[in-house]
Design goal:
The protein has about 700 residues and is of the alpha+beta class. The chain folds into five domains: about 150 residues, Periplasmic binding protein-like II (D-Maltodextrin-Binding Protein, domain 2, 3-Layer(aba) Sandwich), CATH 3.40.190; about 100 residues, D-Maltodextrin-Binding Protein, domain 2; about 100 residues, Beta-Lactamase, CATH 3.30.450.20; about 100 residues, Helix Hairpins; about 160 residues, Heat Shock Protein 90 (2-Layer Sandwich), CATH 3.30.565. It contains 18 helices and 23 strands. Helix 5 links the parallel strand 8 and strand 9. The chain binds adenosine-5'-diphosphate (ADP).
């Protein structure tokens, strides 16, 4: 049955419902006391509505107007919405509300007459081409429904019955409803079939095959109103329905364009109704079923496609997985499938591989164990380390993960085989290297400790030897100095002609012997002093003396040489009581003073002594060759002589400042330092405590 024939059938049904004949009773109106009947009007064309000229119109209006005319009533219309009308009726503000469907709930609130004015179906309307073929198509859609209507309740029940999720949009009147559907604010709207017939096309809407709940419609009166009004309506309706030419059928024809040409007996009406309902239901049912079947078929096809795609995806994953994989039959352990990576890695052809059983892959000593383990594996993922034999006999170490699968109906197990041979070898190498490293570290530590011991021993020996050397030199001083003193003494006596005249050449040679002897003596003296200090055997003599005298002594010793060299010699002296080793302080001062003289070609030497708090300070300032800044840190080192034009002519050993530094620092507890003068030359400063005090050198190196 197609949409058009359904349409026709339904139209017929409406006609069938309304067919009972009536006859005109022709009761004269009671003109004496005109009764005013107030009737609610709302917009539900064609049943009841306001015409363009503002007049109440429609089927219900025509019928009540006919009855009023016959009864001699004056009708007063009260316009409003459906809900307002019902409200007014409940409050007794109007006498009649047309077009009210009967329900037991409403009977609690209002009074109804007995002969239905109309039996009306509810129908779903939607925009043209909506594709809504059954109530199932309304799932997830917004459906506009007149608020406070039977339709609302029935449709809600219907939707719930199908477990549909439909958003119901309540609307105050049908035109609003159709406007909303037309504007797309709702997907469908429910009206009674009369309204739909008349208005759907105007809104560009069309009826759908979804029809439900034929309901009888009446005039309703306030609950407590007197029954006579309703009885009169019933009587007129019964009469009118019997007569096809009555105002009743004229009204139906006028507002629905339905042709009513014949009359059927009531039993046929009911039979028709029943047949119609069954037809509609079976039609709706078959539509629903057909839709369901189509949807289910589509769903099945989709699932099938998905399955096929999924299967292909998994097959691809298996076949082209970079890790070797195999599937074996549980129980028999027969190989069911291997992937490309397996074939490549193991060197078996696919045919060969599929002839194997799982244990064939294992070396002899693991075959029994793997058979037992495999028999016990069930479901859960298994991870283990084993060995496999490749086709060429190579044994590899593998890490395997496996779990159960259903492989084309086989109770199987899939295993992913990684080759960890290389990793294992590296692990072993690493372990070996670690052990070797530990061993090596241990050996080196022992060797180092031995070396340390040896070094400590050697150090001790060295110290001992150093001490012995110093002791040797110290003890040799007497032996060396005695003959040297003889050489110096006698050459001096002979040169001074105390033993008789010497010729000039002899004097010259004797002078050389004397100079060389003095040089050697000073060298020996310095070496001996250094050795004694280093051996901790230099004896210290602390005494009280005047700084002035000490400086005068030094000046006295060197002034003649200064003069003969033509150097100006100035002295600032000061009286200050000192308590320290006088001899060693003098030795230090003489050394510095003689250097000033040696390394100054012309100009002056200025000696100044002063007391600075608890320090005695003696500075020797010359106008000599100065000391190169870069060589500065060397001059206190032993046997260092700085390169200069004077080096060849000026006698020296390079030991003088080394010894002086040690004497001042270690014997006198002071410091010696130098600065180059702004103009020319150098200033050496010796700074020692005025009282060497308790810090006195004990004769041993600290
Ligand atoms: P030397 O026996 O050579 O004088 P010293 O130990 O006394 O040895 O001095 C080390 C070096 O320091 C000298 O060779 C010299 O180059 C430099 N020197 C020492 N005093 C002076 C000075 N007053 N002026 C310039 N150079 C000096």
């Amino acid at each position: 049955m197609n949409g058009a024939s359904v349409h026709t059938t339904l139209r017929l049904l409406v006609v069938l419902i309304a067919l009972p004949a009536f006859c005109n009773l022709g009761i004269p109106p009671a003109r004496a006391d005109v009764r005013t009947v107030t009737v609610g009007v709302y917009e539900d064309a064609p049943k009841i509505f306001t015409s363009e000229s503002g007049k109440p119109s429609g089927i219900f209006i025509d019928i009540i107007a006919q009855i009023a005319h016959q009864e001699g009533w004056a009708l007063r219309y009260v316009h409003g919405t459906w809900a307002q009308g019902l409200d007014r009726l409940a409050k007794g503000e109007i006498d009649l509300m047309p077009d009210v469907a009967y329900t037991p709930e409403r009977e609690e609130l209002y009074a109804f007459h007995k002969v239905p004015v109309l039996s009306v179906w509810s129908q779903v309307y939607a925009r043209k081409g909506s594709g809504i073929q059954s109530i199932l198509d309304l799932n997830g859609k917004r459906v506009a429904v007149l608020e406070k209507t039977i339709q609302f309740e029935t449709f809600t029940r219907l939707a719930n019955g199908f477990e549909l999720k439909i958003t119901l949009v309540p609307v105050p009147d049908y035109s609003t409803e159709f406007r909303m559907v037309a504007d797309g604010k709702a997907d469908a709207g429910i009206t009674n079939r009369f309204y739909g017939l008349m208005n759907a096309r105007k809104f560009g809407l069309e009826d759908t095959p979804v029809m439900f709940d034929p309901a009888p419609f009446f005039f309703a009166a306030p609950k407590n109103a007197s029954r006579d009004l309703l009885d009169i309506i019933d009587r007129h309706l019964a009469e009118m329905k019997k007569d096809p030419r009555s105002a009743y059928y004229a009204a139906l024809k006028r507002w629905t364009s339905e042709e009513v040409q014949f009359k059927l007996p009531p039993w046929l009406v009911y039979l028709g109704l029943v047949v119609g309902v069954v037809l509609v239901m079976s039609l709706a049912g078959s539509l629903v079923l057909k839709r369901k079947v189509t949807a289910r078929t589509r769903e099945l096809n989709r699932i099938n496609d998905d399955l096929r795609a999924g299967e292909q995806r998994y097959r691809h994953l298996f076949e082209h997985n970079p890790a070797p994989m195999l599937i074996y039959q549980r129980g028999s352990l027969e190989m069911l499938a291997v992937n490309d990576a397996f074939v490549n890695h193991y060197g078996y052809s696919r045919e060969e591989a599929l002839k194997l059983i799982l244990t064939d892959l294992y070396p002899d000593d693991e075959k029994e164990k793997i058979a037992t383990v495999a028999a016990g594996l069930k479901g859960h993922a298994y991870v283990g380390e084993w060995h496999h034999r490749k086709a060429d006999g190579t044994i590899i170490t593998i890490m395997v993960r496996s779990h159960d699968i259903d492989y084309w109906g086989h109770n199987a197990r899939i295993a992913v085989i990684s080759d960890v041979t290389e990793m294992k070898r590296m692990e072993a190498d690493l372990r070996q290297a670690n052990e070797t490293l530990d061993q090596k570290v241990h050996e080196r530590t022992v060797a180092l400790e031995q070396k340390n011991d040896e070094l400590a021993g050697a150090n001790e020996k060295l110290k001992e030897m150093d001490r012995l050397k110093s002791m040797f030199i110290a003890s040799m001083s007497h032996e060396l100095r005695t003959p040297l003193n003889s050489v110096i003494g006698y050459s001096s006596i002979i040169m001074n002609e105390w033993l008789g005249p010497v010729v000039p050449e002899q004097r010259e040679k004797l002078a050389i012997v004397l100079r060389a002897g003095k040089h050697l003596l000073s060298l020996i003296n310095d070496v001996i002093d250094v050795s004694k200090i280093e051996a901790g055997q230099l004896d210290v003599y602390v005494e009280e003396f005047d700084l002035f005298d000490l400086v005068a002594d030094a000046v006295h010793q060197l002034e003649p040489d200064m003069r003969s060299k033509g150097l100006a010699f100035a002295v600032d002296n000061v009286h200050a009581q000192l308590r320290t080793d006088r001899r060693r302080l003098l030795q230090a001062l003489l050394n510095v003073l003689s250097n000033a003289m040696k390394y100054t070609v012309e100009g002056s030497v200025h000696l100044s002594a002063r007391l600075d708090g608890r320090w005695a300070e003696i500075a020797v300032c010359d106008t000599g060759i100065g000391i190169d800044e870069q060589e500065a840190d060397k001059i206190f080192k032993p046997f260092v002589r700085i390169e200069s034009p004077l080096r060849g002519t000026v006698p020296g050993t390079g030991l003088g400042l080394y010894l002086t530094h040690k004497l001042v620092g270690e014997i006198l507890n002071g410091t010696i330092f130098f600065t180059n003068n702004t103009g020319q030359g150098t200033t050496f400063t010796i700074r020692v405590p005025a009282d060497v005090g308790s810090a006195v050198y004990t004769g041993r190196k600290q």
